[in-house]
Amino acid sequence: MSINELQDEVIAEFSDFDDWMDRYQMLIDLGNELAPLDEKYKTEQNLIEGCQSRVWLQADEKEGKIIFQAESDALIVKGIIALLIRVLSGHTPDEILNADLYFIDKIGLKEHLSPTRSNGLVSMVKQMRMYALAYKAKQ
Predict the structure, then answer these.
(1) C-alpha distance from residue 109 to each of 35, 44, 55, 69, 127 (Å)
(2) What is the CATH number of domain 3-138?
(3) pLDDT tens digits for the chain (139 residues)?
(4) Residues recognised as catalytic
(5) Which of 51, 66, 83, 108 lies 20 to 30 Å from 119, alpha-carbon distance?
């Protein structure tokens, strides 16, 4: 699936809920479904700066595509990173770098997050793009 198809899928799922408490619950559920990150990846180097809570992001390249894994100690943040992984993981560096992540606005994520979580979201996207840039440079 393309990044845009995945984003449209996320938008459709979130549009089932009018109430933001339900959407938060969905984020928490997504975070709980995220596979735990191997302890060896929970390093200072993998910590995302700019997040109030601790978020570790690991990126590996497989057959030209970047595979992301992550974990956070905060439930909602874990759900946000799970969404980003769902949309961006398994794509090429170019696809990730050129992606317009419109789903974030379409599901109302930015406007319903606290300023610190919103900054964290920006930091997560930025870090995923930095990994894509690094892998692109290696090609």
Answers:
(1) 22, 27, 18, 21, 18
(2) 3.90.1010.10
(3) 999 999 999 999 999 998 889 999 999 999 999 999 999 999 999 999 877 789 999 999 999 999 999 999 999 999 999 999 999 999 999 999 999 999 999 998 888 888 888 888 999 999 999 999 999 998 8
(4) 51
(5) 66
